Amino acid sequence: MTGVVTGLYRYPVKGLSADPLQSIAVGAGETLPFDRAWAIENGPTRFDADAPAYLPPSSFLTLKREERLATLEARFEEQTSRLVLLRGGRPVASGDLSAPVGRQIIEQFLSAFMADRLRGRPRIVHAPGHSFSDTEEKRVHIISLRSLRDLERVVGRPVDPLRFRPNVVIDGPAPWEEFNWVGREIAIGTSGPQAVRLRVTSRTDRCAATNVDPATGARDMAIPASLQREWGHADFGVYAEILSDGDLSVGDSVTL
């Protein structure tokens, strides 16, 4: 199997929009740097920054329940940890996520913007080295464009790959071939020791968040239901564990 990386994305704040990348350095056993590094508590949770642990996505503001989040564009500046929120192309809030006052500015905006959907004061949480992923283990999420095209054939309309919140988008392998990679290793990048090795660990069970258009916030599709009706499961994409340090870039080759 050979393929090519066509997209790289991370999501600095869980539930907010993607941060597209051209290349990024990765480490064994880690997520993409800054991927889900922050999350927005929807009222008090059990999260302890001094002893960070996995919490279910329902603890935080996410697209699964709060499609209004998709109407915000989030721009993240890695060097300063500044988050800028835009609505309709216009900035509505910005703040340094590494500083209490910066987080407070974003929280105040969200308090008003999400007022009717909150269970308490929203709080942006973070812990060094912790990722607020939907999985307990640190993983990257990979989707295949040819599988996406097959899904588009079934639903009869274009499907934005960002509905699936991927970290890595690849093209080349046959539709659904990625499911056969579970338990196997893939290499991304230059062949040989410089390639980044990953072990594919599981298929990804999709939830109602994929029904939300990431550009408009409209809940306008029934992706899990379409998958279940056509293929007898609600899986799309795979999770993988990074096994070696290296660089990932758009245009890299992908080999099994």
Question: Explain this structure to me?
Answer:
The chain has 256 residues and is an alpha+beta fold. The chain has two domains: 2-30 and 135-255, PK beta-barrel domain-like (M1 Pyruvate Kinase, Domain 3, Beta Barrel); 38-126, no CATH class. It has three helices and 15 strands. The protein has helices spanning 100-113, 145-155, 223-231, and strands spanning 2-10, 19-21, 23-26, 38-41, 72-77, 82-87, 90-96, 123-126, 140-144, 168-171, 185-188, 196-205, 235-242, 246-249, 253-255. The relative contact order is 0.21.
Round the mean pLDDT to the nearest integer and report it.
95
Number of domains: 2
Query: Quick one: CATH superfamily of the largest domain?
Result: PK beta-barrel domain-like
For the largest sheet, list the strands in their spatial order. Answer: 1-10-9-13-12-11-15
- Secondary structure category: alpha+beta
Overall, the morphology is globular
The count of DSSP E runs of length 2 or more, i.e. the number of strands, is 15
What is the element layout, followed by pairings?
Blueprint: E1 2-10, E2 19-21, E3 23-26, E4 38-41, E5 72-77, E6 82-87, E7 90-96, H1 100-113, E8 123-126, E9 140-144, H2 145-155, E10 168-171, E11 185-188, E12 196-205, H3 223-231, E13 235-242, E14 246-249, E15 253-255
Parallel strand pairs: 9-10
Antiparallel strand pairs: 1-2, 1-10, 1-15, 3-14, 4-8, 5-6, 6-7, 9-13, 11-12, 11-15, 12-13
